[in-house]
From TrEMBL:
Organism encoding this protein: Magnetospirillum sulfuroxidans
Gene Ontology biological process terms from the UniProt entry: methylation
Claim: S-adenosyl-L-methionine is one of the keywords in the record: yes
Domain of life, source organism: Bacteria
Listed name of the protein: Class I SAM-dependent methyltransferase
Keyword terms, alphabetized: Methyltransferase, S-adenosyl-L-methionine, Transferase
CDD domains linked: AdoMet_MTases
Amino acid sequence: MPDSIISLYQRHSEEWDRLRGRSLFERPWLDRFLALIGPAPEIIDLGCGSGEPLAAYLIGRGVAMTGIDSAPALIALCRQRFAAHRWIVADMRALPVTATFDGILAWDSFFHLNHDDQRRMFASFGRLAKPGAPLLFTSGPSHGKAIGNMWGEPVYHASLSSDEYHARLSENGFTVIDHRIEDPECGKHTVWLARRLTDQA
């Protein structure tokens, strides 16, 4: 079922983009993320969707964006809206990118992966992050799986436990800056803000 997510977003890309809220309730977390980064940063957004509102906000703050999404239709919208930035059709589990970045974002995307794929992603986060780079991602509130519904179709979500996320981050050179379970000021999203240690090669 996790692999059906790609087809789901591809087939419903225009509707998803139309319904995606632009209120930017995520802004306080994005601002904290940006505060950990120097001027003119290069950011990678894993699961960038249509580029609005998150990438749009970051671009407006001077970020050079590399966006990754597995749905070609969503990447097409990003290229149309923000042609000066880099947009790549790819599965985050098999990234073609070899560069390192000043920050990594995986908002409302990482949690579509199954448990084992999430575990493997932490090595990718470490490989992509420059020393000191922040990582901002969302997860579920506790270990488990949940099946949502979009357009009458099942949507897979999974989460590791908070303890395991802490351990996986530490093993791959990150320290947790903040973690909020179902943050009431952020649409009840469970949010992680971590940072790669500066002494990591």
